[in-house]
Design a protein that fits this description.
Radius of gyration: 17 Å
Strand order of the largest sheet: 2-1-3
Low-confidence stretches: 5-19
Helix content: 40-55%
Distance between the termini: 60 Å
Order of helices and strands: HEEHEH
Number of strands: 3
Family: Belongs to the ARG7 family.
Protein name: Small auxin up regulated protein
Structural class: alpha+beta
Number of helices: 3
Length: about 90
């Protein structure tokens, strides 16, 4: 038999929503944030349409192998150099 603490549960949900909403305010609809880099991460906001591109999906598979699904920075962490990422996204934009 357990105890129910609805006040604490609701407060936790509210705090979680407000924290995620504050991070999401600067991301336009149809885009998502990724963090790129090996040691120092840089944040990029990219179109969701990249999720349909095989080249980007390969990069996400590499990120999954290295980081799993635990992304401490709040966005997807991609383990490549900034130069490589910019080269790849420029090819996707063509």
């Amino acid at each position: 038999m357990g105890f129910r603490l609805p006040g604490i549960t609701n407060a936790k949900k509210s705090l979680t929503r407000s924290l995620s909403a504050s991070k999401a305010l600067d991301i336009p609809k149809g885009y998502f944030a990724v963090y790129v880099g090996k040691s120092q991460k840089k944040r990029f906001v990219i179109p969701i349409s990249y999720l349909n591109k095989p080249l980007f999906l390969d990069l996400l598979s590499q990120a999954e192998e290295e980081f799993g699904y635990d992304h401490p920075m709040g966005g997807i962490t991609i383990p490549c150099s900034e130069h490589t990422f910019l080269d790849l996204t420029s090819r996707l934009s063509e």
